[in-house]
Amino acid sequence: MAQSPSLTSRPLDFIYTVFFAFHIPITLLLDLNAIYPPEFAPAVLTNVHKWYMEFSQDPLMVGMASGKGANELIWFRSFLWMELLFQIPTFVLGIRGLSKNSPKIYPLLCLYGASTATTTLPCLLHVTKAFYDGALTDMQFGILISGYIPFLLIPLVMAIDMALRLHKLASMAIVAQGNGTQKAKKA
After folding, report:
1. DSSP secondary-structure letter at 135?
2. Which of 63, 78, 137, 176 is most buried, most CB within 10 Å of its CB?
3. How many angstroms separate the CA atoms of 42 and 40, rounded?
4. How far apart are CA 124 and CA 140, in angstroms?
5. Who's near 7: CB < 8 A, 6+ residues apart?
6. Are residues 159 and 119 in contact, defined by beta-carbon separation less than 8 angstroms?
7. Residue 184 has pLDDT above 60, yes or no
8. pTM of the entire predicted model
């Protein structure tokens, strides 16, 4: 049995794996802080979250902290719950599947990529609107955009890449099925 190519010899898989590994602490320590019950959030997490909001003035996180998450930002609150319930498990499974070079992970990563790119776009647009409304300085906008864009582009590339990989596997299966049918007819 041929040995699978190493993760470092598969550049996109390597990038996706590093992205997932990097995303886990960001999600747990920063993003989900907006939905943690205050009585359960350790002071260090609360302090990091407060610092981030003061530093960046991220209108989504500031809005959640002000209580807008119950009404005006309910859509963003739902995205945070998706991060907790869908994305965190996907990060772990993705790291495992990619490190094993398993094609079984492709459907999940295709779904993750499409879902995440789709949910990141409105966040990016919300931040952009806040900038044009004068709620953010040029520096704050630059920091936020540089933070949000990778979380749009990498999942988008992943969705396209995984869809192409799935298409290739399906095409190979169709060819193999056709060859099997022809062999059965000859016999």
Report:
1. S
2. 63
3. 6
4. 13
5. 13, 14, 17, 98, 99, 101
6. no
7. no
8. 0.89
